[in-house]
Design goal:
It is a single chain. With 419 residues, the protein is α+β, with helices and mostly antiparallel strands. It has 2 domains: 205 residues, Alpha-beta prism (UDP-n-acetylglucosamine1-carboxyvinyl-transferase, Chain); 208 residues, UDP-n-acetylglucosamine1-carboxyvinyl-transferase, Chain. 31% of the residues lie in helices and 26% in strands. It is built from 14 helices and 23 strands. The strands form 6 sheets. The chain has a 4-stranded mixed sheet with strand order 21-22-1-23. A hairpin with a 2-residue loop joins β15 and β16. The longest helix has 13 residues. The N and C termini lie close together (5 Å). One of its GO terms (molecular function) is UDP-N-acetylglucosamine 1-carboxyvinyltransferase activity. It holds the Pfam family EPSP_synthase. Its EC number is 2.5.1.7.
Length: 419
């Protein structure tokens, strides 16, 4: 079993590069099922989740080729043999459910098990099913499976009760082969939605309005080949920015779209951290003196729930009290108990966490309870006195490519160890 060992106290300095956005890569790979033409991708992050979603496609009959040396990925779905992805694979990762939309749209039928993923709260699929049903799908659920059928999907107006990213993606992709025009209202506005729309348009779909709360899709009859480059990972960028802030560092984070991380930049500046924006990069300079800030997670363009635990690590050393309000997932404070092991003073009241900052955190044996919580524990360990050992790091490796090596490159005393 692998663990991550962090020895705190080093000031981080230098340059660190962000990879492609995991939350763009996964839905776009799933969307290749729409077409029988080859899709080529460069600079693909070699994450566990990427291998899982490509294995899902392979289980359906897709031809998938990943070159680890060049990080190039080629997918051709011209010989799909099954419309029921492996339940074992779908159970590993929630994003696997995104194959439902393209399979239904292209073949008129799909049977899929209920999805897995990080245990951060209830993430129902009802909005996915409601949207596909509005497009004309007949849907049955039971025994842990969902089955959907149609002759051909028909364009319609779909209103989402909540701007769900996954539901927006599934419905948007399915609508690309539907007859007529589809409008998704109260759609998710995340940059990853825009990236997916850009990919869809590159293969011949007609999607407009992505990035706003109203997306229009005109159904098409045929699709073509494409080459696509993914957007940078804004959550990875934010994680490295906090790493600089919590260690009193001076770090240039490269391959960043500053507009995608505007809420993180604003909160770091409010905390007294200097953030200088450049072309596709940000420089984060901290003197180690952190002012408390309040955080309320919201759908984009609000503060991202995926950065909540990282900012909580930073606020645990602030000069004062911060209040965190989690509005997206009801079970996303599991990392609090792990922070407490390191000496953090945090109390939970429902969806609120009250963080009393302290100048002292101490190393401890802790566990990554989910992907982002694991990254936050690394951040806390970078500051803490002594050694922090983090277990269950498979969560971390689902979303960060070589986070240990990247942090070592800017001066962190961190290593992966075998126990």
């Amino acid at each position: 079993m692998n663990k991550i060992l962090v020895k705190g106290g080093n000031t981080l300095k230098g340059k660190i590069k962000v990879g492609a956005a995991k939350n763009s890569v996964l839905p776009i790979i799933a969307a290749t099922l729409l077409s029988d033409k080859k899709c080529t991708f460069t600079d693909v992050p070699l994450l566990n989740d990427v291998y899982v979603i490509t294995d899902v496609l392979k289980s359906l009959g897709a031809d998938v080729n990943i070159d680890p040396a060049t990080c190039k990925l080629e997918i051709c779905c011209n010989n799909i043999l099954s419309l029921e992805p492996s339940p074992d694979l779908v159970g590993k990762m929630r994003a696997s459910f995104l194959v439902m939309g393209p399979l239904l749209a292209r073949y008129g039928r799909v049977r899929i098990s209920l999805p897995g993923g990080c245990n951060i709260g209830t993430r129902p699929i009802d909005l996915h099913l409601k949207g596909l049903s509005t497009l004309g799908a007949e849907i049955e659920t039971g025994y842990g499976f969902v089955e959907a059928k149609c002759t051909r999907l028909r364009g319609a107006n779909v209103y989402l009760d909540f701007p769900s990213v996954g539901a927006t993606e599934n419905i948007m992709v399915a609508a690309c082969l539907a007859e007529g025009e589809t409008i998704i209202q109260n759609a998710a506005e995340e940059p990853e939605i825009v990236d997916l729309a850009n990919f869809l348009n590159s293969i011949g779909c007609k999607v407009t309005g992505a990035g706003s709360d109203s997306i229009k899709i005109e159904g098409v009859e045929s699709l073509n080949e494409t080459n696509h480059i993914f957007i940078p990972d804004r959550i990875e960028a934010g994680t490295f920015m906090v790493a600089s802030a919590i260690t009193g560092g001076d770090v240039v984070v490269e391959n960043v779209v500053p507009d995608h991380i505007r809420p993180v930049i604003a909160k770091l500046q409010e905390a007294g951290v200097q953030v200088l924006e450049g072309h596709n990069k940000v420089r984060v300079i901290s003197n180690g003196v952190i002012s408390p800030v309040d955080i309320k997670t919201l759908p984009y363009p609000g503060f991202p729930t995926d950065m909540q635990s990282q900012l909580m690590a930073l606020m645990s050393i602030a000069n004062g009290t911060s209040i965190f309000t989690e509005t997206v997932f009801e079970n996303r404070f599991m990392h609090v108990n792990e922070f407490r092991r390191m000496g953090a003073d945090i109390k939970i009241d429902g969806r609120l966490s009250i963080v009393k900052g302290s100048s002292v955190l101490t190393g401890a044996d802790v566990k990554a309870t989910d992907l982002r919580a694991g990254a936050a524990l690394i951040l806390a360990g970078l500051f803490a006195k002594g050694e922090t050992t983090i277990s269950d790091i498979y969560h971390i490796e689902r979303g960060y490519v070589d986070i240990v090596g990247k942090l070592q490159g800017i001066g962190a005393n961190i290593e992966k160890i075998k126990v």
